[in-house]
Write a structure and sequence with these properties.
The protein is α+β, with helices and mostly antiparallel strands. The protein has one domain (2-182). It contains seven helices and four strands. It has helices spanning 6-18, 55-71, 73-86, 91-112, 118-130, 151-159, 167-183, and strands spanning 2-3, 27-30, 37-39, 45-49. Strands 1-2-4-3 form a four-stranded mixed sheet, covered by helices on one side. α2 packs across α4 (91-112), α4 runs antiparallel to α7 and α5 (118-130) packs antiparallel against α6. The chain starts with a strand and ends in a 28-residue tail after the last helix.
């Protein structure tokens, strides 16, 4: 990693303040990534690529990534990946993990675009489309970019904000149900019949002969 340019650090600090973050998030540049992301469970760090987007687009991206930091989304992602690893054989769990990850990204979109005019939201959508070309980062990292399967839902949510579904809650309920089904053990009480046998009292025989 290398130090980020001063203007990028200033934009990131502005975004953190806008998102209500009280702790400072380090900002670094990394030559091995193609798009901005947040990494680090104990100490979240914003990593930027060496080739930075325009300042206005960078500000939008930083708002999104700082929303991840404020919400503690990396811990949620750890929980999701742990559930996926435990239930690797279950297609419903994989589906719920993908739905929960999408809802996490949409919640950060909603936070970044809160109270913004329509023109700003359109530019935010353009920034998302630019990020389509960026490959996904490591597992326990956030990513401003989006897969092609999610782009329609996210663009619709940004341009027409409203009540969004909470897939994370559905995932937790579904994962709990799967866990209970997999871990439940059918116990049949062993019925042991006790036979009460009465012990016969010893018979004492008098072998003495009378006189």
């Amino acid at each position: 990693d290398s130090p980020a340019p001063a203007y990028a650090v200033s934009i990131a600090r502005w975004a953190a303040k806008e998102q209500g973050l009280t702790r400072r998030v380090p900002v670094r540049c990394n030559a091995r990534i193609s798009g901005p992301l947040v990494t680090g469970l104990a100490r979240p760090t914003l990593l930027l690529p060496e080739t930075l987007p325009p300042e206005e687009e960078l500000a939008m991206i930083c708002l999104h990534e700082m929303a991840h930091c404020r919400r503690g989304d990396l811990w949620y992602m750890l929980l999701l990946e742990a559930a996926r690893a435990m239930h690797w054989y279950s297609p419903p769990v994989h589906f719920l993990v993908r739905a929960a990850r999408q809802d996490i990204e949409m919640a950060c979109d909603e936070s970044a675009a809160a109270n913004k005019p329509a023109a700003w939201r359109r530019q935010y959508c353009e920034a998302l489309l630019h990020a389509l070309e960026c490959p996904a980062g490591p597992v326990l990292t956030t990513r401003f970019g989006v897969g092609k399967s999610q782009i329609t839902a996210r663009l619709r949510q940004i341009m027409k904000p409203g009540r969004m579904r909470r897939g994370l809650l559905a995932f937790c309920a579904g994962a709990l149900a799967v866990t209970l089904c997999c871990c439940a053990v059918r116990l049949e009480p062993a019925s042991t019949s006790r036979t009460n046998t009465e012990e016969e009292a010893p018979v004492w025989v008098d072998i003495t002969q009378p006189e």
